[in-house]
Amino acid sequence: MMSQAKSLIKRWAGSEFYWQFKKDKVAVFSSVILLLMVTLAICAPIFASQNPYDQTVLDIMDSEIPPVWQEEGDERFVLGTDDQGRDLFSTILYGTRISLLIGVCAVLLQAFLGITIGLAAGYFGGRLDSFLMRVADIQLSFSTMMVAIIFLAIFQAAFGTELYQQLALFMLIVVIGVAEWPQYARTVRASVLAEKQKEYVDAARVMGFGHVRIMLRHILPNTLSPILVISTVQVANAIISEAALSFLGLGMPVTQPSLGALISAGFEYFFSGSWWITAIPGLVLIILVLVINLLGDFMRDVLNPKLYKD
């Protein structure tokens, strides 16, 4: 195992992708920032001074304390507190973890649905291809936010706010994931249409391999480059969608806030002087989305030789 790991590391260090990565300072800087944010979010219980989801440790008398660099700041709360007395730094760590979890899981669901549908449409063609692509066209005619707002609002009205808050994380992942699968399906279909005409696919058919094996073992690996690029961008889009839904009151509950829920909760205090409750989580969200998009641009340029310029 150790020798295999060393071999993989050696191959990675000598690859063209790694060489281009080292040369791109923006990609390196974005990777460092993203890695730092992900590490802090995953290890939130270690770095956070309190668990903001534990109501027993909160004190309402500590509400709306400004950041430590202001006159009325408290050294216990570096970034201040929100309207419920939660340490904002701790809440941001936990909120970032939820935003990343929703973003990554929603993209995994998008990818699973889109890749499956795109493979089937491109490989088998004919009426199945026409039907699946018309479904994708219909899906694309509706924006993600519109679909999510309608579905979540109906669910909340039908089953009640309490049940919705218990299932909010799951519901957001499903809604955002289902709403965006056509991006993958159309991209994978286009790649499959090009790949299935090549000789290695004909050779696999002659050898008697089944359709599923040909699609998964032979065609799919050759379509991964555009999938990786789309996935990087879609994680950022999913995080933005979740933040927007939370801001509209259709996201995570107040007791388990994501970055979007934090921004929403503090917005009503913004003009009363407690600007940090909204501004600091908003800045964190902007940085998170920005570094993910910058990495997506880098991957698009490197993995597509036609776009890359020295």
- Roughly what is the average pLDDT, rounded to an integer? 81
Could you give the distance between the termini?
A: 37 Å
- Percent range of helical residues: over 70%
- Major sheet summary line: none
Indicate the overall shape. globular
* CATH architectural label of the domain at 102-303: Orthogonal Bundle
CATH topology of the domain at 102-303: MetI-like fold
**CATH superfamily grouping of the domain at 102-303:** MetI-like
Elements, N to C (H/E)? HHHHHHHHHHHHHHH
How would you classify the helix and strand content by structural class? Answer: mainly alpha
Number of strands: 0
- Rg, Cα atoms, Å: 23 Å
Number of helices: 15
Broad CATH class of the domain at 102-303? Mainly Alpha
- Unreliable stretches (pLDDT < 50, length at least 5) are none
Strand content: under 5%
Transmembrane segments: 26-48, 98-126, 138-157, 163-181, 227-254, 274-296
InterPro entries: BP-dependent_transpt_permease, MetI-like, MetI-like_sf, OppC_N
Pfam families: BPD_transp_1, OppC_N
Main location: membrane
In short:
With 310 residues, this protein is an all-alpha fold.
Describe the structure.
The protein has 310 residues and is an all-alpha fold. The chain has a domain of 202 residues: MetI-like fold (Orthogonal Bundle). The protein contains 15 helices and no strands. The chain starts with a helix and ends in a 7-residue tail after the last helix.
Brief descriptors of the model:
single chain; 310 residues; mainly alpha; MetI-like fold; 15 helices; 71% helix; globular; transport
Question: What's the arrangement of secondary structure elements?
Answer:
Layout lengths: L1 H12 L2 H8 L1 H18 L1 H4 L40 H37 L1 H15 L3 H16 L1 H6 L1 H12 L1 H15 L3 H8 L4 H9 L4 H24 L11 H9 L8 H28 L7
Organism: Pelagibaculum spongiae
Family: Belongs to the binding-protein-dependent transport system permease family.
Keywords: Cell membrane, Membrane, Transmembrane, Transmembrane helix, Transport
